[in-house]
Amino acid sequence: LTMSSSNWLMAWIGLELNMLAILPIISKPKTTRASEATIKYFLTQAIASAMMLLSSTTNAWQTGNWDILELKNKFSTTIMALSLMMKMGAAPVHFWLPEVLQGTTLQTALLITTWQKLAPVTLMYMISNNIQPALLMSAGVLSMVVGGLGGINQTQLRKTMAYSSINNLGWTIMIMALSPNLAIMNITIYIIMTTPVFLMMKNTSMKTLQNLTTTWTTSTATTLSIALLMLSTSGLPPFTGFMPKMLA
């Protein structure tokens, strides 16, 4: 619904349905951590949705137009860009992402880091011409720094994956300022690389770095694959993950 709409209200309805649908999925494990993660996710997404409505309403009030491509007001574009960054979990509004991932299962973490980013990235792609490049660039660089530094010293694999996601979003947002099509390719490659990592973690029920090191004895292929995928995600030359970085 969000990806195919040309009207801000329809896009907003799509995002809202998406949020309400994933809440029961996050809270499925009957633990306090899962409930906490659900509330955190709900609050951040609700704030982002409110900012989105504020932005599109202000724009409609100024221009008399609800069309997504007609977001001409400077104030509106800035608020909209921030709300979309909040929805996908890019710095400086990334704080919810590691916490939510840590509180839920690996399948749900996979959903949040891949599928849940598609709608906001699509909307950002649609309005990328109107957003000030300086805003995109600074948010992108900040996300890269936060993603890179946050992953250091982490023993929890889900948090590490969350910071990796923030880092990759940084790349996507920064490239969005220069070449939106390339940004779409970047996020697509990221999703293709992240999915098998999460699926392998789920199969071997890895939670911490310690699990990853002990899996070596039981399933060598899995550990090796995860190691190579991690290198690919970090963008090392012979791997696929290097391609969007090189093109950028």
UniProtKB/TrEMBL annotation:
Major subcellular site: mitochondrion
One of the GO biological process terms: mitochondrial electron transport, NADH to ubiquinone
Keywords tagged on the record: Electron transport, Membrane, Mitochondrion, Mitochondrion inner membrane, NAD, Respiratory chain, Translocase, Transmembrane, Transmembrane helix, Transport, Ubiquinone
Subcellular location: Mitochondrion inner membrane
EC number in record: 7.1.1.2
InterPro entries: Complex_I_Subunit_2, NADH_UbQ_OxRdtase_chain2, ND/Mrp_TM
A GO molecular function held by the record: NADH dehydrogenase (ubiquinone) activity
Pfam families: Proton_antipo_M
Catalytic activity: a ubiquinone + NADH + 5 H(+)(in) = a ubiquinol + NAD(+) + 4 H(+)(out)
Enzyme class, broadest EC rank: translocase
Chain ranges of the NADH:quinone oxidoreductase/Mrp antiporter transmembrane domain: 5-247
Topological relation to the membrane, as annotated: Multi-pass membrane protein
Membrane spanning stretches: 6-26, 38-55, 75-97, 134-152, 173-193, 213-236
Top-rank taxon, per record: Eukaryota
Any one of the GO CC terms: mitochondrial inner membrane
The protein's role, per its UniProt record: Core subunit of the mitochondrial membrane respiratory chain NADH dehydrogenase (Complex I) which catalyzes electron transfer from NADH through the respiratory chain, using ubiquinone as an electron acceptor. Essential for the catalytic activity and assembly of complex I.
Family: Belongs to the complex I subunit 2 family.
Protein name stated in the entry: NADH-ubiquinone oxidoreductase chain 2
Originating gene: ND2
